[in-house]
Amino acid sequence: MTTDVQPFKRTYPRDIKLGNGSQLQLQLMDGSKVDELIAFAHELPRQDVMFLRMDITDRRNVEEWVRNIEAGRTVTVLAYDAGKLAGWASLHHNEVLWTRHVGEIRTIVGPAYRSIRLGARLVEEIFEIAKDMGLKKITANMTSDQRGARATFERIGFRPEALLADYVVDSEGRTHDMLIMSYDIDGFND
User: Fold this and answer.
1) Using the 8-state DSSP alphabet, how is residue 154 labeled?
2) Mean pLDDT, all residues of the chain
3) Over 80: is that where the pLDDT of 171 sits?
4) I need a surface site. Which of 62, 72, 104, 188 has the fewest CB within 10 A?
5) How many CB atoms lie within 10 A of CB 73?
6) What are the DSSP calls for 96-150, one per residue?
7) Three-state SS annotation for 31-90
């Protein structure tokens, strides 16, 4: 089922300015962006794509991502610098009764756009969308050795919630611990 009405107030495209003076444009992902996203994935360092939930260099996976967007299970915001894809953030949620208040964020920023707070800005964008959708909690998953990602999420206000030992296996067969971090949108006293 395709959703015709956006479940959030924000409008796109939207121009944003980062602290270093960079101006980027935010757009919503749709089926017209598949080739662009695959090309972006191929340019990322191998380590960056190793622990993504799906291989985004594979067209079938990106097309499934688009189907989830069309079904209203995912919202993805893409960031562009002068027409070049710089990064993205997605909000994934499931309307299953007992977890309908929780969304999972997934984000990645191209190497040239790190350390300028683009990742944090994309997460803030997703927070606003999550609030509009009525979500109460956002989670982010990463391996425990992804120190940069953890530091970024901690700066935003995420806190470690669980550590799953040997939960992730990389392409070389090595296991890694998975860290689950969370952020309570409404505060911890609701």
Assistant:
1) H
2) 88
3) no
4) 188
5) 15
6) -GGGTTEEEEEEEE-GGGTTTTHHHHHHHHHHHHHHHTT--EEEEEEETT-HHHH
7) HHHHHHHHHHHHHCCHHHHHCCCCCCCCHHHHHHHHHHHHCCCEEEEEEEECCEEEEEEE
- Report yes or no on whether pTM surpasses 0.85: yes
Residue 127 structure tokens: 């927070």
Query: Do the beta carbons of residue 7 and residue 132 sit within 8 Å?
Result: yes
What b-and-e string marks burial along 121-152, b requiring 16 or more CB atoms within 10 Å of the CB? bbbebbbebbeebebebbbbbbbbebeebbeb
Distance CA 76, CA 67 (A): 12
* DSSP 8-state class, residue 161: E
Residue 10 structure tokens: 């924000």
What is the Rg, in whole angstroms, of the alpha carbon atoms belonging to the chain? 16
Cis omega (within 30 of 0) on the bond before 13?
Answer: yes
> How many Cα atoms within 13 Å fall on the side-chain side of residue 35?
1
Give, to the nearest 10 degrees, the angle between helix 147-156 and helix 118-132.
50
Antiparallel, parallel or unpaired: β 137-143 and 102-109:
parallel
In three-state secondary structure terms, 95 is: coil
Cβ contact 111:6 at 8 Å:
no
Nearest to 103 by CA among 62, 145, 132: 132
